[in-house]
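ligand=adenosine monophosphate
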Amino acid sequence: MRNVFIFLGPPGAGKGTQALKVSQELEIPFISTGDMLRNAVKKGTTLGKEAGEYMKKGELVPDEIVIGIIKERLREDDCRKGCILDGFPRTRTQAEALNKIVEDMGNSKIITFFIDVPDDEVIARNTKRRVCANCGAVYHLENNPPSKRGICDSCGGELVQRNDDKEEVVRERLRVYKEKTYPLLEFYRDKGLVTVEGVGEIEEVYSRIISKIKELDKA
Ligand code: AMP
């Protein structure tokens, strides 16, 4: 059985960080719609130009665009052992499309993690997040600072604040999350939803996730 793991939670819950660690542990691809869209924006492709308009306002990119991207990506060979999705699905339409894609893949199952983090923590985390402009590594000014201010530990690149991590945009992303994505918890509740307490050090949250995965493996 190949597992497609999805990570739900408010913006800045640590989904990307945790999803990446789990993908390294399980040796399956890490697929982030946010990263794919940001790449398209950087390259200035037609898709990037369209998506960028929504992203800079903190709005969701239209379903048909992201569903198309994910559908294509999941068809690639490296997803044969399963994969980790970060930032997808975010709407009911995307969740239904994913069910269909996974069903068509055959012998596959969706496992959903919900990383639970309260609102005030969400605002603090996002506005203090910095990312490496070169390699994409993620830092936090308080919880996970770089050794040298403004410089990436891994590659020496410059650390920047994502445009959508500015406070007014974060508040809008949180509002959109509550309206469109939070209801997905109901959608997945009877389909193997695993809730993990998202407050704490990165390693603490990670070990909560890994122990749940081990429990699922035994079941
Ligand atoms: P993220 O890095 O996951 O927080 O995504 C950054 C931005 O990309 C979001 O605020 C959306 O504008 C867009 N985006 C990423 N994934 C999706 C998705 N599944 N559906 C719609 N928009 C998305």
